[in-house]
Design brief:
By secondary structure, the chain is α/β, with parallel strands linked by helices. The protein has helices at about 15-20, 45-50, 70-75, 90-100, 115, 120, 190-200, and strands at about 5-10, 30, 60-65, 80-85, 105-110, 130-135, 155-160, 175-180. It has seven helices and eight strands, in the order E-H-E-H-E-H-E-H-E-H-H-E-E-E-H. The chain is globular, with a radius of gyration of 16 Å.
Length: about 200
C-alpha cells in the first residue's frame, strides 16, 4: 500500500481549510515558497498568514528551488515540518538541515537512470527522496519504471503528472504519492471536488 499522500501547490485558505477538515486528510501539504515561475507560488506575507493555523497532524512542506540564505532566514520560523529542495547539492542540503533543524525532502528530476541513482548521494542527509519529472512546475511526467531498482527501504516519494485515477496502480508500491496538477481545474486553480475524490480514493488503497 502507498505510504501516504501529498497534495502540493495549495495557495488559498478555503482549499487548505477544506483539506485539513476532510475525513481522510493527506500525509502532507506542499506550498511553493520561492519559485516565482510557478502559478502556485505564494508571496511571503500571504504564505505566513495561510499556514499560521492548526495543521491537524498534517505535515506542511515548503517547496524550495535552490534557496538562498535570504529566503531561508525569512521562513525559518514558519509552520513547516519539511523543506523540499530542488537543485541543491548534498553539501548544501546538509548545511540547511543542520542549521535550521528541519526534515528534508530531496527532489530529483528524472529523465533517465543516471538521474535516479543520484539518490545515493543524498540518502544519508535526506529524510525522503522525491523522484519528479524534469518539468516539475509544469506537471510533466516521466517513466516510473525507472524506479524499479530503487531499494524498498529508501523512504521515497513520487511525482510527475500523476492523475487521480492512477492512484490504484500504486496499491502495492511503497511510495508517498505527490499530486498537484490533477487536483486543478482548467484555470489552474485547485478544485475541491477533485481533491475530495483524491482523498476518498487514496483512503482505500
Amino acid at each position: 500500500m502507498i505510504k501516504g499522500l501529498k497534495i502540493c501547490g495549495i495557495s488559498d485558505p478555503k482549499t487548505l481549510t477544506y483539506i485539513l477538515n476532510h475525513r481522510y486528510k493527506p500525509y502532507m501539504i506542499g506550498f511553493i515558497t520561492n519559485y516565482e515561475k510557478s502559478r502556485r507560488f505564494i508571496e511571503y506575507d500571504k504564505l505566513q498568514n495561510l499556514i499560521n493555523i492548526d495543521k491537524k497532524n498534517v505535515n506542511f512542506v515548503s517547496v524550495l528551488v535552490n534557496p538562498n540564505d535570504e529566503i531561508l532566514e525569512k521562513i525559518k520560523d514558519l509552520n513547516f515540518d519539511y523543506y523540499q529542495l530542488y537543485d541543491v547539492d548534498p553539501e548544501r542540503t546538509e548545511e540547511i538541515k543542520s542549521k535550521y533543524k528541519i526534515k528534508i525532502i530531496t527532489a530529483l528530476t528524472i529523465s533517465g537512470k543516471d538521474d535516479v541513482v543520484k539518490y545515493k548521494e543524498y540518502s544519508d542527509v535526506s529524510d525522503i527522496i522525491l523522484f519528479d519529472s524534469k518539468g516539475y512546475h509544469k506537471s510533466e511526467s516521466f517513466d516510473h519504471n525507472l524506479l524499479n531498482e530503487v531499494p524498498n527501504e529508501l523512504n521515497k516519494m513520487i511525482a510527475g503528472n500523476i492523475q487521480i485515477d492512477d492512484i490504484p496502480s500504486f496499491k502495492n508500491k511503497d511510495f508517498i504519492i505527490d499530486i498537484s496538477g490533477a487536483c486543478e481545474n482548467e484555470n489552474g486553480k485547485k478544485d475541491i471536488s477533485k481533491i475530495d475524490k483524491l482523498l476518498n480514493l487514496s483512503a482505500k488503497i
